[in-house]
Amino acid sequence: MTDAALGASFRDPSGFVFEHAGVVYRQVNRNFARDYDHLMSSGLYDELVGDGSLLAHEEVASPLPRALEDAAHYKTLAPERIAFVSYPYEWSFSQLKDAALTTLRIAQTALRHDMILKDSSAYNIQFLRGRPVFIDTLSFERYEEGAPWVAYRQFCQHFLAPLALAAHRDVRLLQLFRIHMDGVPLDLARSLLPARAWLNPHLLLHIRVHANYQRRYAGDTDSASKVRAMSKQALRNLLTALTSATKRLRWRAEGTEWADYYDGDSYDERAGDHKRRVVGEFIDAIGPTELWDLGANTGEYSRIAAERGIDTKAFDVDPACVDRNYTAVRKQGETHLLPLLLDLTNPSPSIGWALAERDSIVERGGADAVMALALVHHIAISNNVPLRRIADFMARLAEHLIIEFVPKSDPKVAVLLSTREDIFPDYTQSGFEAAFGERFTIESRVPVEGSERTLYRMRRRATSTA
Amino acid sequence: MPGSGSGTIRSGMRPGNLLLLRPIARRLAVGAAALCAVASLPAVSQAAGSLADTGSRLAYVDPGSGSFILQALVATLAGAAVAINAYWSKIKRIFGRETPDDDEAKDESPSDD
């Protein structure tokens, strides 16, 4: 079997990523040999890997089968394994901002070693061990005196425009990444940003004037070729200006409807303590290597897993919660927790060319345990999803499930039902157990002290593997 | 720079007032510079020397003609902003304020907010 290049790996002619026997490799093509060699010999690779901002790799000594039949082959690299890939439309504001600043820092370091980033895609950043890491070894090319930054437009589209929209208009506009694969088109950003955004000279230039120039000079290679060559100092100035533009953009994860909603936890102290203890016991009984916490809020319960050294993803639908969680991860230097934005009622789909460039959240699965605390009532009642279908979906995600049932008598559910007709006759504890019992074996059932809620530990039935 | 002349200036103007005006003044300066530069763009594009001469390779990511032209301009403005900043800190030193820009210092750590 020939090892096919992965779905997203076809734009850059310098090489590509492929999988062989379950391991991901990166091929460097001959046309990129001098750039790659410069990266390795100039000290740039060592400096960036040393400070943790670039993904490390090893050169594969004996060529894999596919290299022998590929005339373009120069080298095969085995990069450090990335267990889970996340995408910009799953990041909070602070995550995208951190990714932007990391990209600019790397570009500045590269310039000191006479190299430059030839692209500045947000997809080149992944969050590993709690911090942003640049993963594309083939993005570095030798700097040529006088050359402008070819990735300037891409930086504005992937970072500056979405961050500006979040800061000045609405944080939900970060979701534009799901529609626009190559970042937010600048003319779109221009038309969405409020007038006060143009008081910021950075945004005025990098977005508004930039969008105008794009239209004015579209396809005008004549004017572009007449521009005076850019000195290295000018290039440094450009990177400095972009850094200061990015740093000035701020969004506070406060005052949103969700953040306020979550501030009032429906648990009293005794119930909270008991719930934390039971969740810890359930996690220990399962012993997963990777756990997904769905509806994680700011990660209080996710940390029970993360603190045990389990790779934990904390998904939540609220940008404020994810941002607070990420800020805490960075502040406390946590290495096993990755907060991500996810709307379970409409999870990240497969997108891009042939629907194979960016995988859906299910395709990127890999958790052995899923945790869904105080979540089912939101999906079942607010979104009318039958319990059976919720069980089906959970069974697709992982073998083990830690799940909490919240009955109609609970104050939170009462609020959900207060303004609508109760069309959920099956939403009872026995209905819940019957629905999940089709997909899972219930291994443990513990009522939470001081509340009417129940915690379950379940295991997927062998016959129901999706 | 405690020169003999600075004493008279100090008595005439309070550093506090000046610092209050500073961010506004800087914005105005940068904005004005931006407008001047945009207005003078044809001169920029007519300037001698061309990218073709640098022998730069074609990029696989389309940089866009407008983006090419604009970034030369941005770089010039950024250079001007650096100069303005340096000028301001000089003035601040004259008025006895040695500390660097609070904003910038705070911004050094990522995710400070």
What does this 3D model show about the protein?
The complex is a heterodimer of chains A (466) and B (113). Chain A has helices at residues 33-41, 44-50, 65-68, 93-112, 152-168, 186-192, 201-216, 221-226, 232-248, 257-263, 269-286, 302-306, 319-332, 376-382, 387-397, 411-418, 429-437, and strands at residues 15-20, 23-29, 57-59, 73-79, 115-117, 125-128, 131-134, 140-142, 290-294, 311-316, 337-341, 369-372, 400-405, 440-447, 454-460. Helix content of chain A is 39%, strand content 17%. In chain A, the strands form 4 sheets. Chain A has a 7-stranded mixed beta sheet with strand order 11-10-9-12-13-15-14, sandwiched between helices. Chain A has a 4-stranded antiparallel beta sheet with strand order 1-2-4-3, with no helix packed on it. In chain A, strands 5-8 form a two-stranded antiparallel sheet. Chain A is an alpha/beta fold. Chain B is 65% helix and 0% strand. Chain B is rod-shaped and about 50 Å long. At the A-B interface, helix 4, helix 5, helix 7, helix 8 and helix 9 of A face helix 2, helix 3 and helix 4 of B.
Sum up the structure in keywords.
heterodimer; A: alpha/beta; Rossmann fold; 3 domains; 4-stranded antiparallel β-sheet; B: mainly alpha; 65% helix; disordered C terminus
Q: Write the H/E string of chain B, N to C.
A: HHHHH
* Number of structurally distinct domains of chain A: 3
Quaternary structure classification: heterodimer
The proportion of residues in beta strands of chain B is under 5%
The CATH level-2 architecture of the largest domain in chain A is identified as 3-Layer(aba) Sandwich
Largest sheet composition of chain A: 7 strands, mixed
| End-to-end C-alpha gap of chain A | 26 Å
List segments of chain B where confidence is low: pLDDT < 50 over at least 5 consecutive residues.
1-21, 35-56, 101-113
Largest sheet geometry of chain B: none
Give the CA-based shape of chain A. Answer: globular
Sequence stretches where pLDDT stays below 50 over 5 or more residues of chain A: none
Name of the level-1 CATH class of the largest domain in chain A: Alpha Beta
pLDDT averaged over residues of chain A = 92
What is the alpha-carbon Rg of chain A in Å? 25 Å
Which bin fits the share of residues in helices of chain A?
25-40%
Strand content of chain A: 15-25%
Calculate the terminal CA-CA distance of chain B, rounded to whole Å.
35 Å
